[in-house]
Design a protein that fits this description.
It is built from eleven helices and five strands, in the order E-H-E-H-E-H-E-H-H-H-H-E-H-H-H-H. With 227 residues, the chain is of the alpha/beta class.
Length: 227
Amino acid sequence: MTENSRVAFFHVGLPKTASTFLQRRGFPFFRHIHYIKKHDFKKQEKHLQEHSDLPFLLSVEFFPNATDKYTIEKIEQVKNNFDKVYPIIVFRKHSSWLRSRYKYHIRKHGSSDFNQYIDPDTTKGRQVKNSLQFYQNITLLEKSFGTRPLVLFQEEIKNSPHETVRLIAGYTGAKFEAAQIRPSIVKQSYSEHQLKWVRKFNKIYPFQPQKIHSPVLKKTYKKISQF
């Protein structure tokens, strides 16, 4: 690499893998690296023009899927803007990942019971099964950027937040003050009791935006989707 090479560390956080914690409580406190917030992801060229003396840290949330247009756009944008990219990807144990995805299904107005949700004979079931193939996510990033990703798990971040943040900082060459990292839950998910009631609600009132005229129902649906 030459002295003027543009280097980026690219954090790919699958949904519900402590991405929000890292984006709000970890990365903003890193020194000796320019952190580009996920909302500024499309403004990479602007950041590159303003900062050229240090490496960059980017962070987004998506499923690395070779057939997904959104995925390809994100990867191509990073490849075009940087000379060398080092991916960081965070997974979650399969059992916990399934539970999390099912909660997301309910939050997004689904009403299937768990067995229906994972049924391999349905389109949704096949999608769920495909989302458990973590190796293909790693391979896509490795082939796209020519570097091996740093692979972490949500459970590591949850159980040892300071140690995991220190690991990422060491990988990126960043420095931080441990006292600035506040290891607490950023977004609280549904409890099992809440999940049952929301699923009942979804069965009684199927989500059909064009047919919802009641202000109360609109507000209720909006509240549910924010969990």
